[in-house]
């Protein structure tokens, strides 16, 4: 009898890192300091999703999110900040799902379709929240307010966490 490999499926690893790379590219566009922080998050996320460790995925996504938050605070474009922050949250969600699938079903089980459906649903929620956030931001302030941007990012993160439960 062979042991079941409980690490995340390969497709989940690739999907997680691809979405996280979007956040890193946005952070790179913001500046070198945010790029370095985002790369640290990418490495942590990569280790987490490779070994099936939730802590690595969560810490990596958190560092990516903070990098984008710092970009927003330093005056980076609001829509791009929200795009990067949304990608960081989506990467966390997809990575957590990949870890769960690996733990429950094993690495060799065909889960590509389930992962695509999960990622698609999460992407729709992220796009709705991001679009709503930009709309409220523009309507409420008429200008780029730093406080409004930070509060919107935190609100989007909290809404995503609630929807995940």
Protein model, in words:
This protein is mainly alpha-helical. The protein contains six helices and no strands. Helix 1 packs antiparallel against helix 2, helix 3 packs antiparallel against helix 4 and helix 4 (78-105) runs antiparallel to helix 5. It is globular and about 60 Å long. The termini are far apart. The model has no long low-confidence stretch (mean pLDDT 87).
Task: Write a short abstract of this structure.
84% of the residues lie in helices and 0% in strands. With 165 residues, it is mostly helical.
- Would you tell me the overall average pLDDT? 87
Share in β-strands: under 5%
Distance N to C terminus: 36 Å
Count, helices: 6
Number of strands: 0
- Which structural class best describes the helix and strand composition? mainly alpha
Global morphology: globular
Give the low-pLDDT segments.
Answer: none
Give me the strand/helix succession: HHHHHH
What's the helical proportion of residues? over 70%
The largest pleated sheet is described as: none
Rg, rounded, reads: 16 Å
Q: Which descriptors would you attach to this protein?
A:
mainly alpha, single chain, 165 residues
């Amino acid at each position: 009898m062979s042991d079941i490999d409980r690490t995340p499926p390969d497709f989940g690893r690739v999907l997680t890192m691809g979405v996280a790379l979007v956040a890193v590219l946005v952070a790179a566009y913001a500046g070198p300091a945010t790029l370095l922080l985002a790369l640290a998050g990418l490495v942590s996320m990569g280790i987490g999703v490779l070994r099936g460790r939730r802590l690595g995925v969560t810490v990596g996504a958190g560092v990516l999110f903070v990098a984008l938050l710092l970009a927003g605070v330093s005056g980076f474009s609001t829509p791009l900040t929200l795009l990067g922050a949304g990608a960081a949250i989506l990467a966390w969600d997809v990575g957590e799902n990949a870890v769960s699938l690996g733990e429950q079903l094993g690495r060799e089980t065909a889960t590509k379709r389930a992962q695509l459906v999960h990622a698609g649903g999460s992407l729709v929620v992220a796009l709705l929240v991001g679009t709503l956030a930009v709309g409220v931001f523009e309507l409420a302030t008429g200008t780029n307010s730093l406080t409004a941007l930070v509060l919107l990012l935190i609100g989007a993160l909290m809404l995503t966490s609630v929807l995940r439960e």
